[in-house]
Design a protein that fits this description.
This protein is α/β, with parallel strands linked by helices. It is 40% helix and 18% strand. The chain has a domain of 231 residues: NAD(P)-binding Rossmann-like Domain (Rossmann fold). Bound molecules: uridine-diphosphate-N-acetylglucosamine (UD1).
Length: 342
């Protein structure tokens, strides 16, 4: 069966994608330096699918190791590149750490595979749109100046990929622009494992609900939205994982749009922070404590995706709703309470 290299495959989105690749009959091979993940995730994947993915622990910034991996695995035809730093606030404090890691790892991979026929899927983000002029935002919307070094790494990585595709016809590349991935696998054996205080909304909600954190602060209630809180397009991580399988399949089949393409990966619907809090309470029966605080620097007011291109051309559509996202996130938090992985 077709071997797919999954960098960052022990991470949150990576581990769910490894499971969906296995379910679809692929053989994922994981590379991860475990800097923001736990090797125990491989046991968890094995519990779900019955198959332990092959694993190589090293840093993709190490060019020699990347070349050695490629030489040792001549049969890899697909790459899904998740491995990257992703904390917005930290990237503002430590921009060079972000530029070094996110660019060197990408360029090393692309160099190592230059001349070899490969299908390449990249983890991008709706952050490239900034605050879009029109909603829902389509893939044709202009890329806005990044709000953070993290966001800039996504924008420039997309440019690196489109230029590489133009120069090397061996490459077939898709960038997936994720909206806000949340939730966990229905087994509750894998999910998000934030390091320290969660910066993202849903892990903060579940940790607050389980008593690990104090009340949630809603960052701003004076936005120009129906309830005043900011709106995002939350997408279940299992749906997102399946979008990667769809992208690999499209690349295998041959993408009629050419050898570089981008797709939005969201549900096409927006939910406000207060709606997410309500959805959590309604779907789990657990009451949350929250307070209203000031806006967070760098946040956009509202963004949700137009997903017609993904639906029509990628042949993929989100299936799980916000209640399922909240229920699964909560089940995972409760599992972690009994079986801490960090
Ligand atoms: C953020 C990044 C995005 C990145 C993603 C990956 C920004 C501007 N965007 O998405 O580029 O790809 O993380 O990690 O940082 N909120 C609260 N209280 C909280 C936490 C969040 O009210 O304690 C609000 C936020 O203000 C926002 C919404 O919840 O309106 C979602 O926040 P979050 O989960 O951090 O995601 P984004 O900021 O959308």
């Amino acid at each position: 069966m077709s071997k797919i290299l999954v960098t960052g495959g022990t991470g949150y989105i990576g581990s769910h994608t490894v499971v969906e690749l296995q379910n679809a009959g692929y053989t994922p091979i994981v590379i991860d330096n475990l800097v923001n993940s736990n090797v125990g995730v491989l046991d968890q994947v094995e519990k779900i699918t019955g198959v332990r993915p092959a694993f190589h622990q090293f840093d993709l910034c190490d060019e020699e190791k990347v070349h050695q991996f490629v030489a040792d695995h001549p049969d890899v035809r697909g790459i899904i590149h998740f491995a990257a730093y992703k904390a917005v606030g930290e990237s503002v404090q430590q921009p060079l750490k972000y530029y070094h890691n996110n660019f060197f790892s990408l360029v090393n991979l692309l160099n190592a595979y230059a001349g070899k026929p490969v299908n390449f899927v990249f983890s991008s983000s709706c952050t490239v749109y900034g605050q879009p002029d029109e909603l829902p935002v389509t893939e044709a919307a202009p890329v806005k100046k990044a709000e953070s070094p993290y966001g800039n790494t996504k924008q420039v990585s997309e440019e690196i990929l489109s230029e590489t595709a133009a120069a090397f016809s061996n490459y077939n590349i898709i960038s997936l622009r994720y909206f806000n991935p949340v939730g966990a696998h229905e087994s509750a054996l894998i999910g998000e494992l934030p390091l320290g205080v969660p910066q993202n909304l849903v892990p903060f909600i579940t940790q607050s609900a389980v008593g690990k954190r104090g009340p949630i602060t809603v960052f701003g209630n004076n936005y120009n939205t129906p309830d005043g809180s900011a709106i995002r397009d939350y997408i279940h991580v299992v749906d997102l994982a399946k979008a990667h399988v769809a992208a690999i399949r499209l690349l295998e089949k041959g993408n009629p749009n050419g050898n570089y393409d981008v797709f939005n990966v969201g549900t096409g619907q927006g939910n406000s922070v207060l709606e997410v809090i309500n959805a959590f309470e309604d779907s789990t029966g657990v009451k949350l404590n929250y307070q209203i605080g000031p806006r967070r620097a760098g946040d956009v007011e509202q963004v949700w995706g137009d997903v017609s291109k993904s639906t029509n051309e990628l042949g993929w559509k989100a299936e799980l709703d916000i209640s399922e996202m909240m229920r699964s996130a909560w089940k995972w938090e409760q599992y972690l309470k009994e079986h801490p992985l960090r």
